[in-house]
Amino acid sequence: MLRTRVITALILAAGLLVVLFxxxxxxxxxxxxxxVAVAAWEWAGLLRAGSRSRMWFGVLxxxxxxxxxxxxxxxxxxxxxxxxxxxxWLLLVPAWFRQRWALRANLPGFLVGWLLLIPSWAGMVxxxxxxxxxxxxxxxxxxxxxxxxxxxxxxxxxxxxxxxxSPGKTWEGALGxxxxxxxxxxVIGLISGKLSQLTLPQILLAGLGLLLLTAISIFxxxxxxxxxxxxxxxxxxxxLPGHGGVLDRIDSLTSTLPCTxxxxxxxx
Length: 268
Fold this sequence. Notes:
The chain has helices at 2-21, 25-46, 51-70, 75-99, 107-130, 132-156, 171-192, 200-231, 246-250, 253-267; strands spanning 160-162, 166-170. By secondary structure, the protein is an all-alpha fold. The longest helix has 32 residues, at 200-231.
């Protein structure tokens, strides 16, 4: 199982690097769009939709992404999408965790899927348009948080973060993730030379931003865990051997990318 997981991870990493640094822009955006369409197909599966409904939801998620790209990604529309997503993650999702609202194959369930995936796709495309390295840095931030949470949770985990949603996650793991992300941000700032250009208040503000992104990434992970638990499934699909499905790989990004896109729009 570990060997399969490692091989799949290496293939995914190689594929991502090819998409980011070797493909033309239109082809890279097409790859992002197809990944989101597959994730939408998986989301419909978590809603226990039928096979035809799952296929249609994948198509109906792909079409708005294509339309957004063809009309030039207008900033007012992106701003609205990302603000709506931020309200969802910061206000509605905490209430969702408390109330355990059921997700079903109905209009609200599909709209939630759109709210997870379309703003995330827009964030991915916008960050990529600034720089492939910037998008990779944001993706790596989430990977750092996930890896640090796993190992710090195994080493020090005592208090459960959300025992009824994801029993393996702990507060100690979350704190380890936050610390690792701040260190990661500091290292990236040093390597890029940006850190020396910032004042102390700006550095502190950047640190708070990194902590916010870490917390929001955990929300994304927990929300998909809740959806899988309600559906009685371990993974969103079996498309990626050893890793589950596409949605399992981007769950934290569904919350992080819209927030990052909004931040970049405000500071760029």
